[in-house]
Amino acid sequence: MTKLGASKRFELVKSNHSLSDVVRLVPTPGHTIDHYSVRVGKVGADAFITGDMVHSPLQMRYPELGMMSDFSSDQAGQTRRVVFTELSDTPTVVCTGHFPSPSVGRLTRWDNGFRFVEH
User: Fold this and answer.
1) Mean pLDDT of the chain
2) What span, in angstroms and rounded, lies between the C-alpha atoms of 75 and 81?
3) How many angstroms separate the CA atoms of 47 and 34, rounded?
4) Residue 50 belongs to a domain with what CATH number?
5) In 10 A of CB 17, how many CB atoms?
6) Fewer CB atoms < 10 Å away: N or C end of the chain?
7) Owning domain of residue 80
């Protein structure tokens, strides 16, 4: 939900929603039903905040590697593969919430998976 001014009204939004021209919610389902990540910035100077989409660097190397707490490990793996393919070998900074510090880096391709390169 986003607050609409001093009127204290709220707007319900879906997980594919632009909050502004530089902040966008991106659907990343699988770990939870309507999980989203957040993309901040403009193309070429942006960051992707993963949230619960990825919990371990192993899931970057092997995107289909699920976890017991996933709502749907199959969907989570498909989501990671699609997102990582889009982000790999680009200037987009990836900000992970569950990696040990430093948890900011970029993605590169690595065989059939991806590698997180700390920034």
Assistant:
1) 90
2) 10
3) 21
4) 3.60.15.10
5) 15
6) N
7) 15-118
